[in-house]
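User: structure tokens for this one?
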Amino acid sequence: MDVPLWLWFAVLGVIILMLAIDLFAHRKAHVIGVREAAAWSIVWVTLGVAFGGYIWMEYGAEFGQQYYAGYLIEKSLAVDNVFVWAIIFAFFGVPREFQHRVLFLGVLGALVFRGIFIALGAVLIDNFSWILYVFAAFLLYTGYVMIRKRNEHMDVANSKILKAFKRVVPMTDAYHGQKFLIRKAGIIVATPLLAVLVLVEVTDIIFAVDSIPAIFGVTSEPFIVFTANAFAILGLRAMYFLLADLMHRFIYLKLGLAFVLIWVGIKMLLLDVYKIPTSVSLAVVALIITVSIVASLRATRGQSRHEIVVENAPPFRIASEEEMAEAQPLFGKRPIASGIRADAPSRFSDGDTPSGSGDQSPEGDGANDRSSLGRS
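Assistant:
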């Protein structure tokens, strides 16, 4: 597949343009409703499907099918990301009007990190063809773990990432608008929104460890791998606002995703024995996802939308007007603090969170981050 340099830049230009349009459209914090989320989802899906049509016409049916197979895999696995984000937001009690900014930066980071992972994966495959078998074994193992732990969900309170963040970064328990950092009592402290952003970024990196090998199982073309990832990821924010309140209805989706990873792993293992046609692979992935979604919705019919509730979540709150007024500017002229006041926030003091949520005792430290943050 001979991809000219101008096409790479053109794709990057479209991605940047769409991100700018999305940022402009949501420049003011507001609650994104189902109708708005559905409209944006249609825009993103149309863009991704249309680009696949361009690949099909310009480079032929084989590459077009590879793109659609990769896009479908990434889009399906992204739903798991969405549900993990919903749990994170529920744990931190993030106001709905602040969620889009976190997700926008999260998606921006995801594009950068996945671009790095894709480049690294392409180099490894080009120099060590046997690495595909390592990817295949990893996908088979991940699929097995997902099946075994399909009813488990992320445990935010016992996440090693969150505990490390709280040990290193001073943090208040109050949201100060959409700010990630504030200056209080002469020191810079994080708001809960920064902790949420860190968890969103880390979970996506962990998810990429699964999804990047999976898409390399259907195509070895870096351009298709990147574009399928990019166009699938761009719609994640809208997908979140559309599906987050329906998490309880997709009871068989994780099982379906596990079978997708297992199928791709088997396909990769058979590369030197029998090359499964891309059209067959695309049909199998589409069938698995469709069956898991339809079966889920039929089994939970009659259930309505509702927000996720996380038990024993810390009592995060919105800062009062007095607290907002007391917050000092991060940069520029400010009073020089002679010391830290006794009432200044420090990481998570006992006054900021209940004893259960900020506990840094050995209990819970052994929790596997992959099981608490990843697909398993």
